[in-house]
Design a protein that fits this description.
mainly beta
Length: about 130
């Protein structure tokens, strides 16, 4: 069973940067496409970014394109979400998600229904 653990959330001011880490706890983590979803208070969970299990392909929500990047280190079983130029509307609980042998594009299209495993989330708060 895949275990996902997020870290790196916190309180920052608008315009600041923050990096979230997602650590997968088993060797098979490299067979999983990994994505980040977020849920703001009173809103539905939404796809933010994803990275393919092979080839490095990525996909981003329109709201974060040009500000967020995603990368992974297979040797460390870790996926990173670099968030730049943060805005108050980025405030949410950010969840790491993993699905075996899919693509980041498919993960974005299927949304939360297509996810095999979830992390418990890390809170990002952006003050204005």
């Amino acid at each position: 069973q895949v275990q996902l653990r997020e870290s790196g959330g916190g309180l920052v001011q608008a315009g600041a940067s923050l990096t979230l880490d997602c650590l997968g706890s088993i060797n098979a983590f490299d067979r999983y496409t990994v994505g980040w979803f977020r849920q703001a208070p009173g809103k539905e969970i939404e796809f933010v970014a994803g990275i393919d299990w092979a080839g490095g392909g990525t996909n981003f929500a329109n709201s974060v394109k040009g500000r967020f990047t995603i990368s992974r280190d297979h040797a460390k079983n870790t996926v990173y979400l670099q968030m730049n130029t943060l805005k108050p509307e980025d405030t949410a609980v950010y969840h790491c998600a993993a699905t075996m042998f899919t693509t980041a594009q498919a993960m974005a299209q299927k949304g939360s229904d297509g996810v095999d495993y979830w992390g418990s989330g890390t809170l990002v708060t952006v003050s204005s």
